[in-house]
Amino acid sequence: MKRYLTVDDIGDLKQALAEAKQVKATPYAWDTLGKNKTIILIFFNSSLRTRLSTQKAAMNLGMNVIVLDVNKDGWKLETEFGVVMDGDKPEHLREAVPVIGQYCDIIAVRSFASFEDKVADYEEQILTQFIEHAGVPVISMESATRHPLQAFADLFTIEEYKKKDRPKVVLTWAPHPRALPQAVPNSFVEWMKEADVEFVVTHPKGYELAPEFSDGVKVEYDQCKAFEGADFIYAKNWASYSSYGEILSKDRAWTVDEEKMALTNEAKFMHCLPVRRNMVVSDAVIDSENSIVVQEAANRVVSAQVVIKRMLESLK
Ligand code: SN0
Question: For 260, what's the count of Cα atoms within 13 Å in the CB-facing half-sphere?
Fold first, then answer.
């Protein structure tokens, strides 16, 4: 495996889930696979779970881990091309990326959507630099358009908790004070389309995801109707794609609360975290027995370990 950016990079999902199960059961079974191999984790944005779980996954495989927070350490990086670098950014990404590649065997990078330029975001301009110039395999730890380690962990969590072969999974938009990227819902949709689930997305009008993700997906604009009989409720805010990066609504009628959860088939509540309590989800729901957000976060180690393990195996 040379890159991990989209659902296509994982190949057969059943096989990936079986491997995830094995990794979860025996996390240290490959603890010499990464001996004398180094992974560098680069963050252009904040992180708690991604940083810790990816580091833990690499350590389980016996790797050396270096973490770089671009906003705190190193030089401020210029990411635009053709600019006169007379401002506050002393180094260009074009040199930084191949240099970082000299110091490691795998690079993992987090670079959110900027919301300044829809085309640049959806072309993945920063991630592409890493793929083209790092010279080593690249893992996305959330790019402008996708969050594949999250989606893999989410599907694995659904597999663990499902009570029927083909559960009903609902992705619901929820209100938020800030404009958030579409990466998490995009990847979740991408994975659910390939999974053996009945999948429904619900959001207010204007929050349609990019066609490359939403094509073929059932959208139900009535949130209560969407919740009926659901086995999993996956909540997430995202900013508008069509009115790119805009907040069109902060309507707390969309907050996931006990009343709406009562419409479901005792659904499990999921969220990638961090979550804004009483905006996205009520205290009562996230604190309930049916909330599996912590278990979901635990599975981030599993998804990262499967991906890093496959990359190490293909380095040999
Ligand atoms: C990120 C997002 O893509 O929505 C990361 C999720 C894994 N979330 C945030 O940036 C939340 C920030 C906030 O202000 O709540």
Answer: 28
Structure tokens at 243: 């009115």
Number of residues in the chain:
316
Residue nearest to atom 9 of ligand 1 (CA): 180
Look at residues 218, 121, 239 and name the one whose alpha carbon lies nearest to residue 173: 239
Residue 65 beta carbon below 6 angstroms from any ligand 1 atom: no
Distances from the Cα of 27 to the Cα of 159, 194, 272, angstroms: 18, 26, 22
Angle at 210 between CA 205 and CA 212, to 5 degrees: 135
The answer, yes or no, to whether any atom of ligand 1 lies below 6 A from the CB of 183, is: yes
pTM, two decimal places:
0.98
Closest atom, ligand 1, to C-alpha of 237:
4
pLDDT digits (tens, 9 = 90+) for 9-20: 999 999 999 999
Look up residue 37 and give its two tokens.
């191999």
Cα of 180 from ligand 1 centre, angstroms: 6
Task: Enumerate the β-bridge partners of residue 4.
Answer: 139
Contact 162 CB / ligand 1 (< 6 Å): no
Atom of ligand 1 nearest to the CA of 46: 10
